[in-house]
Amino acid sequence: MPVTKRTPIPVSEAVKSIMSRTCVWETEEVPITECDNRILANHLIASHDVPPFDRSPYDGFAVHSEDTLDASENSPIKLQVIETIGAGQVAANKLSSGNAIRIMTGAKIPEGADAVIMLELVKEIDVDGKSFIQIKRTLKPNDNISFKGEDTKEGTVLAKAGTVITPGMIAVLATFGHHTVSVFKKPVVGILSTGTELLDVNEPLQPGKIRNSNAYMVAAQVKAMGAAVKLYQHREDNFDSLYENVSECLADSDIVITTGGVSVGDYDYLPAIYEKLGAEVLFNKIAMRPGSVTTVAVHQGKWLFGLSGNPSACFVGCELFVRPVILSGMKVKKPHCQILKAELGADFPKPNPFTRFVRAVLTEGINMNSVTPAGLDKSGSVSSLLAANSLIVLPGGTRGWEKGSEVGVLTWNGEGSEWPWDSPLFSKSSAIKTAEKQP
Amino acid sequence: MPVTKRTPIPVSEAVKSIMSRTCVWETEEVPITECDNRILANHLIASHDVPPFDRSPYDGFAVHSEDTLDASENSPIKLQVIETIGAGQVAANKLSSGNAIRIMTGAKIPEGADAVIMLELVKEIDVDGKSFIQIKRTLKPNDNISFKGEDTKEGTVLAKAGTVITPGMIAVLATFGHHTVSVFKKPVVGILSTGTELLDVNEPLQPGKIRNSNAYMVAAQVKAMGAAVKLYQHREDNFDSLYENVSECLADSDIVITTGGVSVGDYDYLPAIYEKLGAEVLFNKIAMRPGSVTTVAVHQGKWLFGLSGNPSACFVGCELFVRPVILSGMKVKKPHCQILKAELGADFPKPNPFTRFVRAVLTEGINMNSVTPAGLDKSGSVSSLLAANSLIVLPGGTRGWEKGSEVGVLTWNGEGSEWPWDSPLFSKSSAIKTAEKQP
User: A218 in contact with B at a CB cutoff of 8 Å?
Assistant: First the structure.
């Protein structure tokens, strides 16, 4: 196979071309006990007021506020306790002047009552076998009442489709009786590792070979993005069997990720496979390091991601290009990695002819975040992936960076970004400004 | 039951008393495909060098660097290609002077070779049916070789027990052949909701009643912390049956969380249940809002968390007190919520006689984080939990806070804190300083 010339495009262009093709995944109903971290497929709308009735925020006594008009420290007023209602009970009696009803936190305010006084603020007394309370302060109408709908009015849109389901949202779903919840289906990602040098994880090492680590890593990455995973491994060194394997994988998945075989080496069959499939290649060369040969194609409504076989390049490609496809398909508003600013904790002397993504350890500080390259910065490095929780983004066309420079960082742990690629942090001019600040 | 006087202790004291009792959970082996987000139970140690052999970082040709000593643009040298090896293959021949071996990315450097030249930098020619390459530049010994062990040396401790398993770590686990991984077992958390006012999530609303939302919320919270969950619901209004229910729940769980029934109302049976069990109550009153009546007890090596029935108080109690028990038991070094600084996005006019935790929306900004109270700040509020991704911590003894003040924030989404409670952000003096800065 000849060495093909490919024209590199900027990272932002590559991501843009992906975003112009994203589709929306199907939806499904899951039990409320299993909806954690899934994405809402429908708007969550309040189906009744919250609270659903006027209720007491405290344990105490429901009273007529008028009865307390003359109450004071020196001349307490006395009310007869005619009933006790627990939470979930409803008063049997209408409250009339001169009386009080003992009420628990959350219980419905009895008819006729217009205020509640806390348990701790009354004196309970017993007269001839009848219960009374003494009150030493004046209450106003509506004192200590949580009103129907004061928290949430019926019909309010509480969360939109595309929102991740948190514990707090689960409380709200339960409040409104959603024992099942409509969420986006997990798209199925088939992960196909290629490479005759790859041993499976349970095989002993052999001369010249290494264990497959990319497949397990990418599986964990896309699971964290909300996808389901099928693992495939291909080790034969021939075009036809790989073509068959990719086709099979495509039939069973919404997204096919291959690792390796995408470059211009003798055994890099993927470009020819895209061609034989008739897949539309969105790009096959990006002005970035690592992962410049990352290739993305679409075919009959499905996605083909040709990631590099180098672990770090593979990791970066997955976060930059696969993430927004999975999350946009669930209507997530911030489908890209979170962008943050941080102070570079060490010199980075290499020049950056292209945009460089450096695996890094980001520490969120009280006053300023700091970020330091993680381990060996070679695209084949495994150890650097271990500690990394972020990527330093060094704009293309910049020279080495000094410790203390402010840099843009992408992290997959945050809430995400709507579109990080326009950020001034990622532009060459930001680098120049930072450089001028150096002593 | 009489209104019992309880003595409130500071939040930090409450957490400290919990931390003095934490235990370590058991461990188990799980397949590498299911270890995502679990916590390493053993140190991860490199069982061999990475790379395991000297290898080529590029597709190219392995050569003797000496052969290229006289190579130049105008007088290229010529080497005969005697073999082609793919990744995973090992050269059959030893390389002798005047020859080259075609080599793929990741392949083992053949014996006798001491440098690699990239595919793109040579000219391949054919002479009498034999393959040759022309090289126009000088190579030095070791050029373009990834050396055995340069990434990671055998025996290196790559991650300690107590570290969360990320996709990057999974790549490393696979590299070293861990097809199963030793992780901490998920502690079993029994969640027992009490309250006669509670309907289950699938029941229609009834006068005076509300659906149980706390149980599902707390279940999602502790699952996110790494625990397994069993749900129980108790609605009878009598001490004996609740005692029986708590006992049963204790027998089946490592941690029992009850919601409701922990205050001083007529139906708050939990204090008496702790007493009858003979459980040691660590505290039953905290100088905080919401959740001042949160009670924590230990009994025969198990934990009893008596959280308030108010959703927000319940949420806060779970994050502050249950989180570190679950995570310390997995040797996690930062078992508490992450602390961050943020600018208050709205006035908070209420005074804070005690430390106040305000459910809030934190937005991580490029230059400064901002934080705004979420929805209605009442402890019974459900809607405020929906949007909240953090808690603003307002130190006790402070008056209202103005928009623009710098405040301390706790969030459950970050990497955690080792001990946030000593932070100057949580001290009253920080509030005073901030106040002075106001115009």
Answer: yes
CATH number of B60-135: 2.170.190.11
Tally of CA atoms within 13 A in the half-sphere of B409 that contains its CB: 32
Give, for all 439 residues of chain B, the pLDDT tens digit.
Answer: 344 578 899 999 999 999 999 999 999 999 999 999 999 999 999 999 999 999 998 889 999 999 999 999 999 999 999 999 877 889 999 999 999 999 988 889 999 999 999 999 999 999 999 999 999 999 999 999 999 999 889 999 999 999 999 999 999 999 999 999 999 999 999 999 998 889 999 999 998 899 999 999 999 999 999 999 999 988 887 899 999 999 999 999 999 999 988 776 666 889 999 999 999 999 999 999 999 999 999 999 999 999 998 888 999 999 999 999 999 999 999 999 999 999 999 999 888 999 999 999 998 877 789 999 987 555 556 778 888 999 999 999 888 899 999 999 999 988 899 999 999 999 877 655 555 444 4
8 A C-beta contact, residue A100 and residue A81? yes
Question: Which residues in chain A have Cβ-Cβ distances shorter than 8 Å to B170?
Answer: 213, 216-217, 219-220
Stretch(es) of chain B classified as CATH 2.40.340.10:
338-437
Q: Where are the beta strands (DSSP E) in B153-261?
A: 157-159, 180-184, 188-194, 198-199, 210-211, 228-234, 255-259
Single-letter amino acid code for the residue at B278 = G
Which residues on A lie below 8 Å from B364 (Cβ)? Answer: 338, 340, 414-415
In chain B, CATH 3.90.105.10 sits at: 28-51+150-184
The reply to whether omega before A51 is within 30° of 0 (cis) is: yes
Query: Which CATH number among 3.40.980.10, 3.30.390.10, 2.60.40.10, 3.30.1360.70 corresponds to the domain B11-25+186-328?
Result: 3.40.980.10
B375 to chain A: nearest residue by CA?
A151
**Distance between CA B103 and CA B83 in Å, rounded?**
9
Q: Would an 8 Å CB–CB cutoff place A296 in contact with chain B?
A: no
How far is residue A355's CA from residue A10's CA, in Å, rounded to a whole number? 8
**Dist CA B337 CA B347 (whole Å):** 24
Which DSSP string do the residues of A71-84 spell out, in sequence order? --SSS-EEEEEEEE
User: Inter-chain contact B86–A366, Cβ cutoff 8 Å?
Assistant: no
**How far A121 CA lies from chain B's nearest CA (Å)?**
11
Contacts with B89 (C-beta within 8 Å, 6 or more apart), sequence order? A196, A197, A208, B107
Which CATH architecture describes the domain A338-437?
Beta Barrel (2.40)
Task: Determine the Cα–Cα distance for residues B407 and B394; give it in Å rounded to an integer.
Answer: 7
In this structure, which amino acid lies at residue A83? E
Q: Distance, in angstroms, between A177 CA and closest chain B CA? A: 5
Q: What's the predicted TM-score (pTM) here? A: 0.92
> What is the third-level CATH fold of A28-51+150-184?
Molybdopterin biosynthesis moea protein, domain 2 (3.90.105)
The span from the CA of B162 to the CA of B183, in Å, is 9
Partner-chain contact B389 A415, CB within 8 Å: yes
Q: Closest CB to B267: pick one of A50, A90, A104.
A: A104
Q: Tell me B204's DSSP state.
A: P
Give the mutation candidate from A385, A409, A427 for the B interface (greatest B CB count, under 10 A): A385
User: How far is Cα A45 from Cα A56, in angstroms, rounded to an integer?
Assistant: 25
Give the single-character DSSP code of A348.
B
